[in-house]
Design goal:
about 280 residues, eight-stranded mixed sheet, 8 strands
Length: about 280
């Protein structure tokens, strides 16, 4: 933990000092709206961080310094449409369009070469579809307590949709319009993604939280969480994959166990770029 705070101090000095030009905070035009990106320039292939539903890219900030220190990678965080500082085109918002916009933005920023993925929660569904589209460019990934296609059953998606109260729908639409449009199409997204798995030939580490609990506000049950954990374990036990459960952690694993998350990201990333991990082929 001491090394973690040392890395954080070094990193804060880095971004506030002479090398501040290495950090880019920008809005990227993707048609009728702009997406907010924060890029920490490194010398190795980029790591793209995909946040959970309703979260902006800022949730990753505390673990970026030691990951940067351990990998030398360019680190990319961003806010999905209608979240954080990103704008939203409500006339043309869909799960498919969000993936298209991400790909467009990354190309605009010059990132059309190999990339490593890190995802949390429903961000795993975005990362899965993104990886399917450009599987030849994805060198590996770490999924942190993610939603998986096998967990996105029709019954679960419909129950989540119908369990949100009118009051909560109104609040979500006002304060997190990006989340509103995802939830509004949640059964449709589940129908599409329930059979679209992360490419199993891509090196992947799956990190599961020990104490992820059901959210009664969206109708989740203990049975849902058991399926969530079973699906995570099945994904992590495929060839080229690794599965671990972190002790005494909640859904945002890195808040209580930053070291494990940092180490797993850094170790798999360094193995993939060095060629020491088994080939995807």
């Amino acid at each position: 933990m001491l090394n973690y705070f040392k890395s954080l101090l070094i990193f804060m000095t880095f971004i506030s000092g002479e090398a501040s030009s290495q950090v880019t905070d920008t809005l990227v035009n993707v048609g009728n709206h702009r997406l907010a990106f924060k890029i920490i320039k490194g010398n190795n292939p980029p790591i793209l961080f995909e946040s959970g539903n309703g979260d902006s890219g800022s949730v990753w900030e505390n673990i970026l310094p030691p990951i940067y220190d351990a990998t030398g990678a360019t680190l990319i965080t961003y806010d999905r449409a209608g979240l954080g500082r990103s704008e939203i085109d409500t006339s043309n918002i869909s799960f498919k369009q969000e993936i298209n916009d991400l790909n467009m933005a990354l190309k605009s920023l010059g990132f059309d070469d190999p990339i490593f993925l890190v995802a949390h929660s429903f961000g795993g569904i975005y990362a899965t579809e993104f990886a399917r589209r450009i599987s030849d460019r994805i060198i590996g990934g770490v999924f942190i307590d993610v939603s998986t296609p096998c967990q996105l059953t029709k019954e679960y998606a419909n129950r989540v949709y119908t369990s949100i109260s009118d009051e909560n729908w109104s609040m979500i639409k006002q304060y997190k319009p990006g989340l509103f449009h995802v939830l509004d199409k949640f059964p449709d997204i589940a129908a599409i993604m329930s059979k679209r798995n992360f490419p199993d030939s891509i090196p992947l580490t799956v990190i599961a939280a020990e104490h992820y609990k059901p959210n009664p506000h969206i109708g989740e049950t203990e049975e849902d969480i058991l399926l969530w954990k079973e699906c995570l374990k099945n994904l992590g036990q495929l060839p080229f994959h690794k599965y671990i459960t972190t002790k005494n952690t909640d859904h945002k694993v890195w808040e209580k166990d930053p070291k494990t998350v940092i180490d797993e990201i850094s170790q798999l990333y360094n193995r993939t770029i060095s060629g020491s991990h088994p080939s995807k082929e």
